[in-house]
Amino acid sequence: MMSEDISENDLPSVKFENELKTLMNYTTLEGYVKKQTTIQDIDKWIQSFQSKVEQYLKDSSRDTSLDYDKRCKHFNYLINITISKITSLSHGIVKTNEWSHKIKDWRSKLYTSNPNLMCKEINTYTKNNKKILGTFCEDSDYIKKKISDIQRSKQCQNILKNISTRKELLTTIFEDEKGKARKYTEINEACSIKNLNTIFPSITCSSSIEPASETDAHTASDNDVDTGESSDRLRTQSSASSRDLSNFRRESFTVTGESESSSDSSSDAIGLVSLPIFGVLALSFVLYRYTPLGSKFHASFRNNENT
User: Fold this and answer.
1) N or C: which end of the chain has fewer CB within 10 A?
2) Is 154 a member of any domain?
3) Which residues contact 53 (CB under 8 A, 6 or more apart)?
4) Largest pairwise CA distance in the chain
């Protein structure tokens, strides 16, 4: 059975916040600048945000797998920071109060008309530290339930980095609270900043892929679905094969060159021995044919025949 490839975006709190902020067009709100963004732009943003989020919450209220208490806290927290951002844009206290009440009234009516949401305005993370701890506990519970799939997931390292970063931040908060003798941050007894190692002990990722040997190159190319890892691996193997082939050609050329040099040396030796012989014969022919020595030699040869 193939394991589920879980990513950090599947962590419950991360998924919820990403979906909600996308619907809210939250990046646009974050880009608004004090005393520069117009009242009309803010009014338009609030209207769009209310209609989209309302539909999303109605749809999600039918999902029985959700932890409504955690979703309620998270949603109210996001609404509160949204109100804080809008009131910071400073178009006068009258207008900012109007925006704040408009959003709060909308939320109250939303909860009243949709009892399936099981949420009240007072159920929220009162401080940022509590929100960090609450979402950390929620996502840690999810990881524990999905531990086998996550350990085999290609995104395991990203999930580990995400949750470990939050754990380090909470550890810093814990040390600060301990040093200043403050009341420790906690959601409940199980989700307390004093129990971070119990909430999330650690995970060991087993999703790393061993580099393929050259004999496995064909298997890798047949089985891998054009992933960057398999492409890099095949490129490496191809480069190695090219280098081996280049070396083989160079070695072959060296051996052949040495054989040719030996043959040339033998031919040169024969040529050097033959040259004096051919030279003597040629000189004798010239002397015989074109000089008086030839006539004398010819006459002497005839006298010897007649004798």
Assistant:
1) N
2) yes
3) 20, 23, 24
4) 156
Task: Write out 98-128 in H/E/C secondary structure.
Answer: HHHHHHHHHHHHHHHHCHHHCCCCCCCCCCH
Residues 235 and 150 in one domain: no
| d(C-alpha 91, C-alpha 99), whole Å | 10
Residues 30, 31, 35, 40: is their CA dihedral positive or negative? negative
User: What per-residue string of b and e applies to 260-294 under the rule 16 or more CB within 10 Å gives b?
Assistant: eeeeeeeeeeeeeeeeeeeeeeeeeeeeeeeeeee
Angle between helix 156-179 and helix 128-145 axes, rounded to 10 deg: 140
Tokens representing 229 are 């890892």
Tell me the average pLDDT across 167-183.
Answer: 92
**pLDDT-derived band at 211, boundaries 50, 70, 90:** very low
User: 30-53, pLDDT tens digit by residue?
Assistant: 999 988 899 999 999 999 999 989
Residue 242 to residues 213, 222, 280, Cα–Cα distance (Å): 15, 21, 57
Per-residue pLDDT reduced to its tens digit, 127-144: 999 999 999 999 999 999
Q: Are residues 221 and 196 in the same domain?
A: no
Which of 221, 206, 203 is CA-nearest to residue 143? 203
Q: Which helix (H) or strand (E) holds 4?
A: none
Which residue range forms the structural domain that includes residue 152?
128-208
* pTM for the predicted model, two decimal places: 0.64
User: Does 250 map to a domain?
Assistant: yes
pLDDT tens digits, one per residue of 153-163: 999 999 999 99
The total of structural domains in the chain comes to 3
